[in-house]
């Protein structure tokens, strides 16, 4: 392009700009013509041929204006096609068919065919009907021939799933002799009784809690201890609930007793089920159950109020 711009004269550039201006006027005037797209296409082809001579900015601007005007015209035509102004007129189609395929009655020596179709394309049956009748008729045969060009013909016979004739191979059935095999006796798998296992697990855990209580009472040298310091786990709310559940089993079996001290705080003590004098101790007597509820917030408040930092019952792994 640099070599072209150095040798291009001002007169050539002026002529190129004039042609671009003429193309712009042709595109703008095409909107009022019957076939605007054809006129715009001719202008674009001329501009495309002149593009190889564009070497300066001013000519490039005028070239771009031609493309912009053509794009605007195309958009307007697209809007017309998609709008309500583009409608199918059945009356116009009817008049066009009448003017094309109507056969007038024969008068005198005239042919009697007042259509735009050539005489040699008319069927003999239509011409005979026009010559013997004075009424206006239509060349239906010619209309049928014309319509057949745009309708789907009879589809050819195609094989969709392979050839029509296929040799089906017969399956050869091999009869095998039944051979007796020596199978080892397999012992059926015994199903575990999960209910029994749960009871055994609970019983073992209750015994562990009782051992912890006895060791703790021996360690502190007293007959009873605070229920909160014994059963509450400061690190786990769920294990605290399990510990209270296990203590309730011990109380129900008469192996532990629950009573309240002078501050109205719950305390527990160990009881011997075979001891005849246990009824004289606080928290003993007949089997009793004390029901109380504790939520997570209350558990947290009790741990903070009594400064429980370590659980007497060991912390179980999750």
TrEMBL record:
<feature type="domain" description="Non-structural maintenance of chromosome element 4 C-terminal">
    <location>
        <begin position="225"/>
        <end position="313"/>
    </location>
</feature>
<feature type="region of interest" description="Disordered">
    <location>
        <begin position="1"/>
        <end position="29"/>
    </location>
</feature>
<dbReference type="Pfam" id="PF08743">
    <property type="entry name" value="Nse4_C"/>
</dbReference>
<dbReference type="GO" id="GO:0005634">
    <property type="term" value="C:nucleus"/>
</dbReference>
<dbReference type="GO" id="GO:0006310">
    <property type="term" value="P:DNA recombination"/>
</dbReference>
<keyword id="KW-0234">DNA repair</keyword>
<dbReference type="GO" id="GO:0030915">
    <property type="term" value="C:Smc5-Smc6 complex"/>
</dbReference>
<feature type="compositionally biased region" description="Basic and acidic residues">
    <location>
        <begin position="11"/>
        <end position="25"/>
    </location>
</feature>
<comment type="function">
    <text>Component of the SMC5-SMC6 complex, that promotes sister chromatid alignment after DNA damage and facilitates double-stranded DNA breaks (DSBs) repair via homologous recombination between sister chromatids.</text>
</comment>
<keyword id="KW-0233">DNA recombination</keyword>
<feature type="compositionally biased region" description="Polar residues">
    <location>
        <begin position="1"/>
        <end position="10"/>
    </location>
</feature>
<dbReference type="GO" id="GO:0006281">
    <property type="term" value="P:DNA repair"/>
</dbReference>
<protein>
    <recommendedName>
        <fullName>Non-structural maintenance of chromosomes element 4</fullName>
    </recommendedName>
</protein>
<dbReference type="InterPro" id="IPR014854">
    <property type="entry name" value="Nse4_C"/>
</dbReference>
<comment type="subunit">
    <text>Component of the SMC5-SMC6 complex.</text>
</comment>
<keyword id="KW-0539">Nucleus</keyword>
<dbReference type="InterPro" id="IPR027786">
    <property type="entry name" value="Nse4/EID"/>
</dbReference>
<keyword id="KW-0227">DNA damage</keyword>
<comment type="similarity">
    <text>Belongs to the NSE4 family.</text>
</comment>
């Amino acid at each position: 392009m640099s070599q072209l711009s150095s040798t291009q004269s001002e007169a050539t550039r002026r002529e190129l700009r004039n042609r671009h201006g003429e193309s712009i006027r042709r595109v703008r005037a095409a909107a009022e013509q019957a076939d605007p797209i054809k006129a715009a296409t001719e202008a674009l082809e001329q501009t495309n041929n002149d593009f190889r001579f564009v070497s300066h900015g001013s000519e490039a601007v005028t070239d771009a204006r031609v493309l912009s005007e053509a794009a605007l015209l195309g958009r307007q035509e697209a809007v017309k096609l998609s709008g309500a102004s583009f409608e199918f007129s059945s009356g116009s189609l009817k008049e066009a068919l009448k003017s094309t395929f109507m056969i007038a009655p024969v008068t005198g020596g005239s042919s009697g065919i007042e259509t735009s179709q050539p005489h040699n394309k008319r069927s003999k049956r239509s011409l005979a009907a026009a010559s013997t009748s004075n009424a206006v008729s239509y060349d239906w045969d010619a209309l049928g021939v014309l319509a057949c060009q745009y309708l789907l013909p009879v589809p050819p016979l195609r094989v969709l799933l392979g050839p029509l004739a296929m040799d089906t191979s017969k399956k050869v059935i091999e009869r095998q002799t039944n051979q007796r095999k020596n199978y080892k006796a397999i012992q059926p798998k015994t199903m575990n009784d999960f209910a029994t296992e749960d009871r055994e697990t609970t019983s073992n855990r209750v015994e562990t809690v009782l051992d912890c209580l006895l060791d703790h009472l021996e360690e502190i040298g007293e007959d009873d201890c605070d229920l909160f310091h014994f059963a509450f786990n400061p690190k786990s709310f769920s294990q605290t609930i399990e510990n209270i559940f296990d203590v309730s089993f011990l109380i129900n079996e008469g192996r532990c007793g629950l009573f309240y001290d002078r501050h109205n705080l719950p305390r527990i003590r160990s009881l011997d089920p075979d001891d005849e004098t246990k009824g004289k101790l606080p928290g003993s007597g007949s089997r009793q159950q004390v029901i109380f509820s504790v939520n997570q917030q209350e558990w947290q408040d009790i741990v903070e109020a009594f400064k429980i930092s370590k659980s007497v019952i060991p912390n179980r792994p999750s």
